[in-house]
Automatic annotation (TrEMBL):
Protein name, UniProt field: Fibroblast growth factor 8 b
SUPFAM superfamilies: Cytokine (SSF50353)
InterPro entries (alphabetical): IL1/FGF (IPR008996)
Domain of life per record: Eukaryota
Lineage: Eukaryota, Metazoa, Chordata, Craniata, Vertebrata
Region (Disordered): 1-65
Gene giving rise to this polypeptide: FGF8B
Classification via Gene3D superfamilies: 2.80.10.50
Residue ranges, compositional bias (Basic residues): 1-15, 52-65
Length: 65
């Protein structure tokens, strides 16, 4: 508590960890084997020919610079 008697502000990490814990948990009645359908989906990998730095430097600015 502070000198004025008010409770100190808690860090946000504990609250976030608590929320993440419940997000990861399965609802009651679900089996672990039912959790697998997401593993079968291949994630599309975005293809970028240039990195962001080169893409930025290749843009032509109006004004001849």
């Amino acid at each position: 508590f502070t000198r004025k008697g008010r409770p100190r502000k808690a860090s946000k990490t504990k609250q976030h960890q608590r929320e993440a814990h419940f997000m990861k948990r399965l609802p009651r009645g679900h089996l672990l084997s039912e959790r697998r359908p997401f593993d079968a989906l291949p994630l599309p990998v975005p293809v970028q020919p240039f990195s962001k730095r080169t893409k930025h430097s290749q843009q032509q600015r109006p004004g001849g610079r």
